[in-house]
Amino acid sequence: HWVSMPPSRVETIDPRKLHISGEFVEDNLGTTLGEDGKVMVRLIAQQYSFEPQCLVVPAGMPVTFRATSTDAVHGFVIDKTNANVMLIPGFIATFTARFDKAGERLMPCHEYCGTGHEAMWGRVQVLPAEEFLAKAKGGERMSCVPR
C-alpha cells in the first residue's frame, strides 16, 4: 500500500522547543548554500507570520525547503510555482522546488489559521544564479533583510 501512497509527514519535532535547540533555532532560519552546493531553506510558520518573512533563492537551481509550524495548521504556497504544502505543528514538511525566472513571488498562508490570517504574507526574492552564488559565498544564512 505504501508504494502507491507513500507516508507523508513522518519526520516529527516538538513544536514547544523549536526556538530552543535544533535545526529551527532563529540563527538557522533562512537560505543557506551547503558545502555540497545544495540550497536549503528553513522556515517557521506561526500566527500570523513566517520567519523569515522574506526568502532569497536562486533561479534555475533546485531549492530544498524544510518547514514547520509552532502553533496551528498553516498553508505555505509560493505563487507561480508548484510549492504548496501544509505546515502542521509537530511535523517537518520537506520538498524541493525550482524557480525558472528571477523576480519576486508572493508567499501567503492559504490555510485559515485564526483572526489574523489575512495578514499572513511573506515574499520570495528569486535572484539570478550567479548573483545568488556570489552572495552565498560567505556561508551565512540569507534573507531579504540584511543582517
Which features would summarize this protein structure in a list?
147 residues; mainly beta; 5-stranded mixed sheet; 3-stranded mixed sheet; 1 helix; 5% helix
Descriptive notes:
The chain is mainly beta. A hairpin with a 2-residue loop joins strand 2 and strand 3. It is built from 1 helix and 10 strands; from the N terminus they run E-E-E-E-E-E-E-E-E-E-H. The radius of gyration is 15 Å and the shape is globular. The strands form 3 sheets. Strands 1, 2, 3, 5 and 8 form a 5-stranded mixed beta sheet that branches. Strands 4-10-9 form a 3-stranded mixed beta sheet, covered by helices on one side. The protein starts with 29 loop residues before the first strand and ends in an 11-residue tail after the last helix.
Strand content: 35-45%
Shape: globular
Radius of gyration in whole Å, from Cα?
A: 15 Å
Strand-pairing-aware structural class: mainly beta
What is the distance, rounded to the nearest whole angstrom, between the alpha carbons of the first and last residues? 48 Å
Helix content: under 10%
Question: Uncertain runs with pLDDT below 50, 5 residues or more?
Answer: none
Major sheet attributes: 5 strands, mixed
Tally of DSSP helical segments:
1
